[in-house]
């Protein structure tokens, strides 16, 4: 298979993975728990496979991790990838412990890991965005070759304007949904399940009436005709948040690294 075809497949799979991961923040979407658990395992496996396929890069950076000559952004990308792998592992394990479909008859011990599952999932959302931001030069280089996009200043200006709009939209959603409050809920992420089987995270959301909490992971069932709109809303909200972190990371990287470089080992492929 030619490199061009491989790049097309990899980008297509990355986009699909991001969309499915965004949908998983609505547990009632596309068939409810059956889809949520199955797709969650598939996304987790894909992310792990993605890192395995880039093992040569990981191994190479590991050997040079404390080398003063190693670019800062390369080291940052390495740390982000490791943290993302840890998050995926936690999400998978807690998901299995919470399973009510795929592993319902295999797990005899029920632990209250719902809050941990949710909080780490939101952390992973941020890390995926940061990963994209650190890889953006490589991604845009591939896209320009695939789509035959010319190098023109006016296109660069349009791209910058779009990036600013995306960052503003994502930032709005981060604030409106209480993103950092959800991440902070990791503090209550592990305890014994109560007699009614309900987690303190869910109870707190009900008592406080927190808007939008039940539309996240573990969200309640949608109402008939609203299910399609709920899925699109979930995708829009979480992809915009992911994109905001990507844009922020990219421009911080430009400030640190100076002019963007098209070569090097800044990030994994």
Describe the overall structure.
The longest helix has 32 residues, at 226-257. The chain has 269 residues and is mainly α. Residues 189-225 and 260-267 have low confidence and may be disordered. The chain has one domain (3-257). The protein contains 10 helices and 2 strands, in the order ααααβααααβαα. The protein has helices at residues 3-23, 33-53, 55-63, 72-98, 114-134, 136-147, 153-176, 179-184, 200-208, 226-257, and strands at 111-112, 191-192. It has a two-stranded antiparallel ribbon with strand order 1-2. 68% of the residues lie in helices and 1% in strands.
Walk me through the topology:
Elements: H1 3-23, H2 33-53, H3 55-63, H4 72-98, E1 111-112, H5 114-134, H6 136-147, H7 153-176, H8 179-184, E2 191-192, H9 200-208, H10 226-257
Antiparallel strand pairs: 1-2
Helix pairs in contact: 1-10, 2-4, 4-5, 5-10, 7-10
Identify the notable features of this structure and list them briefly.
1% strand, single chain, disordered C terminus, 10 helices, 269 residues, two-stranded antiparallel ribbon
Q: How many distinct beta strands?
A: 2
Strand percent estimate: under 5%
Oligomer: single chain
What best-fitting shape do the alpha-carbon axes yield?
globular
Arrangement of strands in the largest sheet: 1-2
Structural class: mainly alpha
Total of domains: 1
Overall pLDDT confidence:
74
The main β sheet shows up as:
2 strands, antiparallel
N to C succession of SSEs: HHHHEHHHHEHH
- Provide the helix percentage: 55-70%
Radius of gyration: 20 Å
Total helical elements: 10
Rounded to the nearest angstrom, the distance between the terminal CA atoms is 17 Å
Low-confidence stretches: 189-225, 260-267
């Amino acid at each position: 298979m030619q490199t061009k075809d491989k790049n097309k497949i990899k980008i297509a799979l990355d986009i699909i993975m991001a969309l499915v991961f965004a949908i998983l923040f609505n547990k009632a979407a596309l068939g409810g728990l059956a889809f949520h658990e199955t797709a969650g395992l598939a996304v987790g496996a894909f992310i792990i496979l993605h890192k395995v396929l880039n093992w040569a890069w990981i191994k190479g950076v590991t050997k040079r991790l404390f080398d003063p000559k190693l670019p800062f952004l390369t080291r940052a990308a390495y740390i982000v990838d490791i943290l993302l792998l840890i998050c995926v592992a936690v999400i998978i394990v807690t998901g299995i412990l919470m399973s009510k479909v795929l592993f319902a008859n295999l797990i005899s011990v029920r632990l209250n890991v719902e809050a941990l599952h949710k909080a780490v999932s939101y952390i992973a959302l941020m890390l995926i965005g940061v990963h994209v931001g650190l890889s953006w030069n490589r991604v845009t280089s591939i896209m320009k070759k695939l789509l035959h996009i010319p190098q023109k200043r006016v296109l660069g200006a349009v791209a910058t304007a779009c990036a600013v709009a995306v960052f503003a939209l994502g930032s709005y959603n981060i604030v409106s949904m209480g993103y950092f409050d959800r991440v902070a809920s990791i503090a209550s992420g592990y305890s014994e399940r109560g007699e009614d089987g309900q987690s303190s995270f869910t109870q707190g959301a009900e008592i406080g009436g927190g808007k939008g909490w039940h539309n996240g992971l573990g969200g309640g069932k949608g109402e008939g005709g609203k299910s399609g709109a709920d899925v699109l809303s979930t995708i829009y909200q979480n992809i915009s948040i992911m994109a905001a972190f990507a844009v922020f990371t990219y421009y911080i990287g430009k400030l640190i690294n100076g002019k963007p470089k098209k070569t090097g080992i800044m990030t994994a492929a």
